[in-house]
Specification:
heterodimer; A: about 170 residues; alpha+beta; four-stranded mixed sheet; 4 strands; B: about 450 residues; mainly beta; four-stranded antiparallel sheet
Chain lengths: ~170, ~450
Amino acid sequence: MNTKLATILLLASVSGLAACSKKAPDTLPPDPVDNTGPTTTPTPRPTTTTGAQPGTQAHFAGAVGSSTTIYFDTDRYNVDTQDAAALQAQAQYFARYPQVTFTIEGHADERGTREYNIALGEKRANAAKAYLVSLGVDANRIAVVSYGKERPIALASNESAWAQNRRAASVIIN
Amino acid sequence: MKALIALLLAGTATIASAQDLGAPQGETAPVEVIDSGADDDVEIRVTDEAAWSDIGIAIPAFATDRERPTPANEAGTGALGREVARVITANLRNNGLFKPVGPDSLPQPAFSAVRAPAYGAWSGQGAEMLVQGYVTARDDGRLVVGCYLYDVELQQQLVREGWVVAAADWRRAAHKCSDLIFSRLTGESPFFDSRIAYIAETGPKDRRVKRLAVMDSDGANHRFLTLGSATALTPRYSPDYSKILYLSYVDGNPRIYVYDIGSGKQTLVTENKNPTIAPRWSPDGKFILYSMGVAGNTDIYRIPVTGGTALKLTDNPGIDVGGSYSPDGSQIVFESDRSGTQQCYVMDADGKNQKRISFFGGRCATPEWSSRGDQIAFTRIAGDFNVAVMNTSGGGMRVLTKGWQDEAPTWAPNGRIIQFFRTEKNTGRSGIWQVDLTGQNERRLPTPVDASDPAWGPIRP
């Protein structure tokens, strides 16, 4: 347990570093709640399991923070230094939990044609996969799917929303 | 470990077990053409074609020999005759081609007058052209619909035709009559008796439900073909209307399925672990184009409808996607970002002689070759997204629409009208629109819910 907690804290600091220099979204999606550690919430919680189990999305997000997702420039699919830092945080998690398999979901913003955007999301997800594989994650643990522009996270039609939607999100397969 | 097995299974895609289909929808029987009159045909040329859009056309209610009940209209064949005239009037008016006057503001001719119009009376009403017709019920329950076009000034019949249709197909007779009038007065090929496959959209922007749907060219006879549990995209009718190619996420990944309309069965276009997108038919219906991503790189492939070995048509590190055949099947226009941005390219049907044709600034996406062969419609991206046309070597580019995001043009069977879908800024709501080649006549098609990805089929067999 102590080892696990230490790892989580270490990963959290890595992703914290990564978050500093992000090119991207003016407003990122809110960081997921880190419910792996002791809670400071004053409201009483259910007495059942409050900590996410390793191998769940909540646990993964708790460990790497906003680094579950990387973001891309318009019509680009390259992994830049910021993306690399986030993917390194992911790779450490996946090294720590070698039984975990996951899907990288590639997405595009709405300012593209439908079919091209599916192909672009495919490129983005595969770029993230290739980088993780280069860091030692077994390719057989990684599925890839592109949703093109079909599943936006930010719903406005402006640069900030589009920046949040041009993404590759790693999602744990349960 | 369990998760890993599931992952690997998802990758094999040998069985299309997951279903998102509604009940199968059989297509109705072909329309039988009959000789509708005893008179000899009279060939008259319309003297001034430039002015045809201003021609006054009167379309009174179609007559009936005797009032009989029909499943097509509870009130009988007389009431149905009025409906037929309304459909024809709406067709001619909605496409901006003519300014017809319909049955609700005109007297209804008697059955005996259908072949002997009261020219004097119609001339007095200012009508230059007159459409008359009849609807009669046969003992077998089928309907006979006759359609006559007269030049009031010349007091001559220009064209006539008749059809025997199942009661459920009465609208097809109205569309056939519309096509007959349109073709006779404009010299263009018909397009009304055709269907459209599209994607029906409901729900909020981040949880949009996208279902495969079909309708007649005027929006009637609408049906949903999938239930909506899986996202469906980019349908394409086969040239004989027996099948629809479309993309579905039913197994979690984007894959193209061949949906057999009669049986309701669907099969994967190719059994492969890679995602397949952007399905297209060859004009003869014998080949299917699809685009497939391998390790993230999407290229265009061609496979016989009967299965077998796929031929890789493009081989390029950029995104090559889509494809639309020339009407003779010898060439394919497609989009590629191999130059750095989406542009349109033409290649031979076997992939040889690939060359870029779009050089007018902005990006060129979703090219569609006109069934007439002379024009290519595409999505022009230059700030906003607009529907534009160019000739087959990339010249003569003209932008036809002015929306914020207009994309994915599809041609009417006669190559004179283009449908596309328009997405609203912020709300993400979408609708199918159409525009003619002048860019002047633009209108939204009526659909029960939001709509995208229209795919206009050919004239029905």
